[in-house]
Amino acid sequence: MLLFNLLSVYARQMLSHYWNDFVSFGEIAALVDTLVAKTRAWEEDHGMSFTYDGVPLLAMLDEYAMLRHEREEEKRRMRVSFTNKMIRMTRCQIDLST
Known about the structure:
Blueprint: H1 2-46, E1 51-52, E2 55-56, H2 57-97
Antiparallel strand pairs: 1-2
Helix pairs in contact: 1-2
């Protein structure tokens, strides 16, 4: 029974964490996508590259998108690893209790 309670608390915490990540990730991703679209439109209208501190803004946004993707993949791998550890622990405790 104690194990079930611990797992249910863990599940609630993880769902809350996932929801917060999903909401904030979605908002930032939408802002970046809008900025990319507006920057491309500006560059087409003016026939030149939009730069910020001498660096093309689209290059900065592309680099940010790549880093964000790598960070999300690392988070996913960590969650899968942690979940697998919890499953192994649970199985071990169930085997010990029988």
